[in-house]
Amino acid sequence: MYSKDGNMKDIKTPRICDVVWHNGEFIKWNDARVHVMSHVLHYGSSIFEGIRCYSTKQGPAVFRLREHMQRLLNSAKIYRMDHPWTLEDLCTATVELIRQSGMDQCYVRPILFRSLDEAHPAFGVNPFPNPLACYIGAWDWGKYLGDEAIEQGVDVCVSTWNRLTPNSMPAMAKSGANYMNSQLIKMEALLNGFAEGIALDDRGYVSEGSGENIFLVTGDVVLTPPLSSSILPGITRDSVIQICQELGITIKERTIQRAALYVADELFFSGTAAEITPIRSVDRITVGRGGRGPITEKIQKLFFEITKGERQAPDNWLTYVNETKTAPAKNNGHAPARVKDDSDTTPILSFQTVAQD
Ligand SMILES: Cc1ncc(COP(=O)(O)O)c(C=O)c1O
After folding, report:
1. Distance of CA 278 to the CA centre of its chain
2. CA 107 to CA 62: how far, in whole Å?
3. Which letter does DSSP use for residue 163 in this model?
4. Does 174 qualify as catalytic in the annotation?
5. Within 10 A of 54 (CB to CB), how many other CB atoms are there?
6. What is the pLDDT of residue 7?
7. Are 275 and 296 in contact (CB under 8 A)?
8. What is the pLDDT of residue 190?
9. What is the pLDDT of residues 121-137, one digit of tens each?
10. Which residues of 289-302 are buried (b: 16+ CB within 10 A; e: fewer)?
11. What pLDDT shows up at residue 196?
């Protein structure tokens, strides 16, 4: 799939929405520009989200919009970004943007960043003097890890790069700067002929892919690393946990050793872009029978039925764009799943203690 000279095939982008939401109004795609001396370009001061809108019989439907926007607000809070936008504002803007785009399905990208006040420029690391800018764009995006990945699975490696340490860069904030680490993981994987890299945390336990959470199946039990393994609290991860509970599959958060990846019966990634993608080999060691395993397939099937609006989600996960209002708030936008784990007493989308093996 990828050549070794760095000339990579990229994800298909059949269509881009020609309007962008900016600080409360819709502007043309061509007018959505920033100054090159903006703080964000030099110091990585952005936080963002990635959200999918699916095509359903009832028109376009955004998957777990409120949870994504709540994570954006959480990321903003962590980075002391004092902005005026509410959960409601951001959800309404997204629905309206998709409606204006005329697209039936798309990927939505909200971003909040430190910009430049051209009348009173500030060029230092200190972010506070710089104004905040918020944009939401959308485009139609193909399969993130390749067209065949969803059925066939992907070949991955364990990265030589570790995931961020919790006391350096918070992995639970989806900040642009975190993706410098992701880029190192991704580039190394691609240049070595793999579709993706899995990073270990600073203690050597499995963390996540450059843009996906990871799940391991052993026997009839599904395991996933806890938040303390420096992972992003993935919305798809949370959905997988709830789907497992719905299907009566035992799901646990556990610290996972690298070697456990090699002897797993099944492995799969979860993520908004990657959706649920099986992993068929790690470091050229075949996982299970070397394709999509039966438990992965079961979870994937239910996930796609839910996102297509063919089956009721465990919770209110789809926001139908053609309905004027966004989905009602539940627990301030969160309906966090609970994981069967003796050491786990906190919600999935908040800080967690280490789950011991
Ligand atoms: C580093 C990282 N981990 C995990 C995920 C999966 O998160 P989600 O399911 O919310 O898209 C992503 C994608 O956003 C990611 O970039």
Report:
1. 16
2. 9
3. P
4. yes
5. 17
6. 53
7. no
8. 97
9. 999 999 999 999 999 99
10. eebbbebbbebbeb
11. 97
The strand pair at 250-253 and 221-224 is best described as parallel
What atom in ligand 1 is closest to the CA of residue 236? 9
Entry pTM: 0.90
Q: Is the CB of 196 under 6 A from ligand 1?
A: no
Structure tokens at 279: 């992993």
3-state secondary structure of 208: strand
Q: Count the Cβ atoms, other than its own, within 10 Å of residue 191.
A: 14
Question: Which residue, 76, 47, 50, 48, is CA-closest to 65?
Answer: 50
What is the Cα–Cα distance from 208 to 237, expressed in whole angstroms? Answer: 11
Q: How many Å is the Cα radius of gyration of the chain?
A: 20
Tell me, what's the pLDDT at 235? 98
Residue whose CA lies nearest to ligand 1 atom number 3: 212
Q: Phi/psi zone of residue 80: left (φ > 0), alpha (ψ -120 to 50 degrees), beta?
A: left
Please, what's the largest Cα pairwise distance for the chain?
Answer: 62
Q: How far is the CA of 10 from the centre of ligand 1 (A)?
A: 18
Q: How many CB atoms lie within 10 A of CB 144?
A: 21
Is 208 within 8 Å of 179 (Cβ atoms)? no
User: How far from 235 is each of 26, 59, 269, 313, CA to CA, in Å?
Assistant: 27, 22, 12, 14
Is the CB of 211 within 6 Å of ligand 1? yes
Give CA–CA dist 107/352, Å, rounded: 29
Beta bridge partners of 215: 268
β-partners of residue 137 are 109
Nearest to 261, CA basis, from 215, 304, 310, 328 = 215
Tokens representing 274 are 């990657």
Please tell me whether residue 195 adopts helix, strand or coil conformation.
Answer: coil
Nearest Cα neighbor of 219 from 250, 242, 256, 243 is 250
Q: Which residues of the chain have pLDDT under 70?
A: 1-9, 324-357
167 secondary structure, DSSP code: T
Kindly give the distance from the C-alpha atom of residue 232 to the centroid of ligand 1, in angstroms, as a whole number: 6
pLDDT digits (tens, 9 = 90+) for 281-325: 999 999 999 999 999 999 999 999 999 999 988 788 999 999 845
**The predicted structure's pLDDT at residue 142:** 76
Closest residue to atom 6 of ligand 1, CA basis: 271
